[in-house]
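User: For a reading group we're discussing how well predicted structures match intuition. Take Sel1 repeat family protein. Before you show the prediction, I'll give you the sequence so everyone sees exactly what went in.
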Amino acid sequence: MKNFLLLIILSIGFIPAHSQSFNELIAEADEKYDQEAYGESAELYEKALTNEAGSVGQNYNAACSFALAGDEEKSIYYLERAAKAGYKNVDWMKQDEDLKSLHDHEKWEEIVSIALANKEEYEKDFDKELQAQLERIYVEDQTLRHLLNPAKEKFGKDSDNMGYLWKLINKEDERLLDEVVSIIDEHGWVGRSEVGGKANTALWLVIQHAPLEVQEKYIPLLEESVKKGESSGSHLALLVDRIEMRNGRPQIYGSQITTNPETGEQVVHELADPQNVNKRRAEVGLGPLEEYAKHFGITWTVPEETNSSN
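Assistant: Thanks. Here is the predicted 3D structure of Sel1 repeat family protein, as structure tokens, for the group to look at:
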């Protein structure tokens, strides 16, 4: 019977029982990681990356899943693949809690050295002084904001403590905005090839927190930078949506979450052409809105188009 079945399969062509594309496997692996199903995530990454090299980030993520699943050898294997393919974010790799179990592995320092060499090669033509200035701004913009959720849990959303924290944040925002505006006016919207990703992101973070008129003034520079591949399309999408929302218009990419004043529940702010939002999101490197909304406890589905008749 087995031979007979084999002849049938060979005669019609082999059809896998569970055939998934590379991208589908990676997407499922990412989802399992988010669900903290690290063993399943690792298996899916391995299945995808066995026959395809994958990106630097995909190999790094596989290393994280294997480390969290308790398989240090496979984690080191994929981390080394990532490093040899060009991974360069050494600072993050060394502080990444996912990889903490690898720090005593005999190959850890070797991989760190490879990543460090990648970083030095990538940054050899950077404006080091400007990079350092913007990376400092990044830290100063984000530090107090990382204290918001812990403070809210400890003191309450409407407490005097939260009011004081926001007062400090607003004061810092004004100071950093003056500094960033001076940088942009002198150097333009400096891109990743000039100062690196973190420093480039600092520009967007500060402008994202700026008054509306400032956002509208500088968004054309960000648009041009994105066209050149020097800035993130997702950063542009978030700034576009914030500007549209602040002008009382529907957002374009679905990045802005607001609170329903009647129910107190979080909702996706009004969208222009919601049927095609995921296409627009994909064009700037954002995942489906359904998945994004889940992070805020929101169930969002693409509304059906309604045809109006005369």
